[in-house]
Write a structure and sequence with these properties.
Elements lengths: L21 H14 L3 E2 L14 E2 L2 H8 L3 H4 L3 E4 L6 H9 L3 E5 L7 E4 L9 H4 L2 H7 L1 E3 L1 H6 L6 E4 L3 E3 L4 E2 L5 H11 L8 E5 L5 E2 L14 E3 L4 E3 L19 H4 L1 H10 L15 H10 L4
Parallel strand pairs: 3-4, 3-7, 7-10, 8-11, 10-12
Antiparallel strand pairs: 1-2, 4-5, 5-6, 8-9, 12-13
Length: about 290
């Protein structure tokens, strides 16, 4: 499907931007000003990029670059984030016979598994949309992902801004970092899992980003024009940092409550400065890296 750029980009909407550091906010707003010229407005959120990761003109070109990578071709199971720019990729992955794991919006209803063998072929495209995913996919708990022995060698996400070191700033809610943390905690992903960000060229910046210890770096940055390979992408070697969750997240996200029950005790506290973990955190990391 060919998508044309909006004729007149509307004024940038930032009224519901969540709390974030000044640095991250400035980076996001810088990119959002450029992105609105190529972004496809959402049917619900329009151009409020603090509420969703938008599709953009050329996302299908970026998708074609992605499916030619070895890490895509060899992966049997792929986590693909519920971002607008990844809908066509979710559909293509089903056509390629891959199992797709995706979360619902805001992770509020957890994880869904799309298996092309369990979905009629004529419904693959419908299933690649978030509403269709919940109709034709299978809801899976973290316990089910672990008990079924699912391993995820590739994760794909959209984002707000990203630099050449693979450090990404999304909407500001930290959902992808939570998804990584939960899947890492149950052994479904590890530091060998490849992470890809699919973005428009205007979202790639040369400047340094000041990230947090839980920010999940990307091995590849794929745009509508090129593939950027990142050496030594930084990925957290632990699960959820419970006392750093935003207020209300534990109440809103059932998967977090499930994980807390799985791993409690012990709980992971905030990493100390320079990643000098407490003994309690080290015990948790040993648990999280256990091969279930």
């Amino acid at each position: 499907m060919t998508i044309s750029a909006p004729q007149r980009p509307p004024p940038l909407q930032t009224g519901s931007t969540p709390p974030a550091s000044t640095h991250k906010s400035q980076i996001r707003e810088k990119v959002w000003e450029e992105l609105r010229h190529v972004a496809i407005p959402d049917s619900r959120f329009d151009h409020d990029y603090s509420s969703f990761i938008c599709d953009f003109v050329g996302s299908n070109d970026a998708g074609r670059h992605l499916i030619n990578l070895d890490c895509y071709m060899t992966a049997e199971t792929i986590f693909i984030a519920p971002d607008n720019c990844l809908q066509e990729l979710r559909c293509q992955a089903l056509k390629d016979g891959k199992i797709v794991i995706c979360t619902t919006y805001g992770i509020r209803r957890g994880f869904f598994l799309l298996n092309p063998k369990e979905i009629p072929e004529r419904k693959w495209e419908v299933a690649s949309y978030l509403d269709g995913m919940e109709r034709y996919g299978r809801h899976v708990t973290l316990t089910a992902i672990r008990s079924e022995g699912l391993r995820i060698p590739l994760m794909v996400t959209g984002t707000g801004a990203i630099n050449y070191k693979g450090l990404r700033f999304g909407k500001g809610h930290g959902f992808f970092d939570l998804e990584w943390g939960m899947l890492y905690s149950i052994g479904a992903v590890n530091k060998d899992t490849k992470i890809i960000a699919l973005v428009h060229e205007c979202q790639v910046l040369e400047e340094e980003f000041k990230g947090d210890q839980w920010d999940t770096g990307c091995d590849y940055v794929i745009t509508n024009k090129r593939v950027i390979t990142v050496a030594g992408a930084a990925k957290p070697g632990y699960g959820i940092i419970w006392d750093k969750l935003d207020r209300g997240m534990l109440e809103d996200i059932e998967s977090l409550r499930e994980l807390k029950n799985i791993i409690s005790p012990p709980e992971l506290k905030s990493p100390q400065e320079h990643m000098d973990f407490s003994e309690e955190a080290r015990l948790y990391m040993d648990y999280a890296s256990f091969d279930f």
